[in-house]
Write a structure and sequence with these properties.
mainly beta
């Protein structure tokens, strides 16, 4: 039975406070046993990448993540060692699932790309992405390289909620999915349609909600890895085939996580290294920044159950680095500068909803022409976002505002369901610097505040540098501050600190956002010649 949007949403929102406690597990060997070994620190990515599915193809690791209403969707990450990651591409090039994803008469906030699945099929050397949209249907995209191009293979009428895609050893395709009631579907050999679906497990009431399926075949047994949001992980095991019968075991519950103030690691995936070692890549609720991937080694009991290796009864803040071959190259950093050269945006960028592609361009900087006449940033198209690097980071943009027109608003925001920005207002032929706060949404994602000026300053010349500093350490609301410069060297603070809320219900964390929208008429433009994300 398919649950309603309200029921599904509530299950995801049953977020429990992170507790101290631990699951039954073995401890790592004493540190002295490998004192010279390299170690890694958690989180392995201090940026917002949730609901991760992780696979290995040859000597390369890939992971996918949720992006909700951001476009392009479903980023694909790449790593050669499970620790250092880069953004390689997006599996969903455009959210063409309805006008609301274009900000056309409706909005898609907190809809779109939820927990989905990534798999690789050796028989045709093809990557598969599979995910349901709006509890209505499931989409399958394929590519022969994660950079793309990705194209839609099929639309399936069954919405596979929180799906896990398995390419079996005989090349058959199976999907595990569901919330509390877990089902398995078999797809046609070409992956375009459903051949069969069957309920395989009902979660005991003592456990509550299970979702976030990941589907594996390991040593001839079938496993469905499931999360209890947001404090537990469970696994189902079948020796009788993909349709069961399955038995259940708890993997972790109320496990202390590696980020102070953050939640319990959960809802990720298992992956095996070239040498046979196993790891669990999960995420940690760590608002206001979002959900951060963390890595831990896994061992297996003699009767075939996974055990997360702990450090002092907790998910370790560090572990010995995975033993993998030397990487062929260094991955592209997720921080640093972008001058918007070339003909496309780099994969670090995602738009707030689908953009109007006639109103922006790159090469010699990023040009943002006004695409919407609105007084509400949450309705403005072509707002370009970038994840914030934790625990604290700073975004600085150099902006040419000489082509702005009266009524235009442009700048750099800290964007979420409660937002603030520093930027420019052009009215009556004069351009002023402003810091605006009080942009808010309710829990149905309707705008409740379009913002007000908290500070302003006069401006001369055609260039300005805008800066936002964000503290995204979890556990409490954290400050975001804004400043500006007319020479790129000396920065002046503008306005009060903005309190970035740590409520989880928007799911996505705060982002830096570049925007330019009109309040009177289209035709104006700004040019961002440089964006830099830096850490202390």
């Amino acid at each position: 039975m398919q649950m309603s949007w309200t029921q599904q949403s509530l299950s995801r929102r049953r977020v429990l406070a992170a507790a101290t406690g631990l699951a039954a597990s073995a401890l790592l060997p004493p540190a002295g046993a490998s004192a010279q070994a390299a170690v890694f620190s958690n989180p392995v990515i201090w940026q917002d990448f949730a609901d991760v599915d992780v696979i290995r193809v040859g000597d390369t690791y890939y992971a996918s993540a949720s992006t909700m209403h951001y476009s392009p969707g479903a980023p694909i990450l790449r790593s050669y060692d499970l620790v250092n990651w880069e953004i390689a591409g997006h599996a969903v090039p455009v959210l063409d699932f309805g006008a609301k994803y274009d900000l056309n008469g409706a909005r898609g906030y907190v809809r779109g790309i939820w927990a989905s699945s990534l798999a690789y099929r050796p028989s045709n050397r093809t990557f598969y992405w599979l995910g349901q949209i709006d509890f209505a249907r499931t989409y399958v995209y394929t590519a022969t390289a994660v950079e793309g191009p990705w194209s839609r293979l099929s639309t399936i009428s069954t919405p596979y909620y929180d799906a896990g895609l398995l390419v079996d050893s005989d090349d058959s395709l199976y999907v595990a999915y569901g919330n509390t009631t877990i089902s398995v579907a078999q797809l046609s050999p070409d992956g375009r349609s459903q051949v069969r679906t069957q309920q395989v497990f009902t979660t005991p009431s003592s456990v509550g909600t299970l979702e976030g399926s990941r589907f594996y075949k390991i040593n001839g047994r079938y496993y469905i890895f499931l999360t209890r949001p947001a404090n537990g992980q469970y696994i189902l095991k079948s020796a009788g085939g993909p349709f069961g019968p399955y038995t259940m075991r708890q993997v972790l519950l109320d496990l202390r996580g590696p980020i102070p103030g953050g939640g319990v690691p959960h809802q990720g995936g298992l992956v095996q290294t070239q040498s046979g070692a196993w790891y669990y890549l999960a995420f940690v609720d760590a608002y206001p920044g979002g959900r951060m991937p963390a890595l831990a080694p896994v061992t297996w009991t003699s009767d075939g159950w996974p055990v997360v290796q702990l450090v002092d009864g907790a998910w370790g803040t560090s572990y010995p680095s995975p033993a993998v071959p030397p990487p062929p190259r260094q991955v592209t950093p997720m921080t640093g500068a972008d001058t918007f050269d070339g003909t496309t945006l780099k994969p670090r960028w995602e738009w707030n909803h689908n953009p109007d592609n006639t109103k922006w361009s790159v090469g010699n900087g990023l040009t943002l022409r006004t695409a919407t006449v609105t007084g509400d940033l949450y309705w403005a198209r072509n707002t370009l976002t970038h994840r914030i690097q934790g625990p604290t980071s700073t975004a600085t943009v150099q902006l040419d505002h000489s082509a702005m027109r009266d009524g235009d608003r442009a700048g750099l925001a800290l964007l979420r369901d409660s937002s603030a920005w520093i930027g420019l207002k052009r009215d009556g032929g004069t351009t002023r610097l402003v810091m605006v706060t009080g942009l808010t949404m309710d829990t149905n994602w309707n705008t409740t505040g379009t913002g007000y000026e908290a500070a302003s300053a006069p401006l001369s010349g055609s260039r300005v540098w805008l800066r936002a500093n964000a503290d995204i350490r979890p556990g409490a609301p954290r400050p975001g501050t804004f400043s500006y410069s007319t020479d790129g060297i000396t920065f002046t603070r503008l306005g009060p600190a903005f309190s970035m809320g740590n409520d989880w219900r928007f799911f996505m964390g705060y982002r830096f956002a570049l925007f330019n929208h009109a309040t009177q008429a289209l035709g104006g433009a700004v040019r961002v010649t440089r964006f830099e994300l830096s850490t202390p």
